[in-house]
Amino acid sequence: xxxxxxxxxxxxxxxxxxxxxxVEHRPAVVIIPFDEHGDVVLVRQYRYAVRRALLEAPAGGxxxxxDPDESAQRELQEETGFYAEDLQRLGGFWMAPxxxxxxxxxxxxxxxxxxxxxxxxDEILEAERVSVSELERLIRDGEILDAKTIAATYMALxxx
Length: 160
Known about the structure:
single chain, alpha+beta, 21% helix, globular, four-stranded mixed β-sheet, 160 residues
């Protein structure tokens, strides 16, 4: 099971009581990988919940007792077939803090080397390379609708 759902009764700062539903989910990582030409390696993956394939940055869950940096390298290899000689953590964000405990760590990967790990058996991924200007256009035109990819791209492109 990836999630736990619970309902709490809480006391608000004004003294009133309210009900809060919370979805517990372990932390995750998202990676913006730049190849030797400065293009970004994304993955196209069918997402059952929205009934369509989405173009996304490689991402995945942090396993129990796994460091997020290790998770980022593992997910990058599983989803794109690349290992990053240069992996930089940029920070992170809460995915949906109104109801979800999932924290997403954001990475930039450079100096990519081929090193494929076996993908998860329930994932069918297709890697695609896009230029930075094309990535920005895809986001601007609403062709990339995945929030983690949009947020991580913004963070990665604002690097000094």
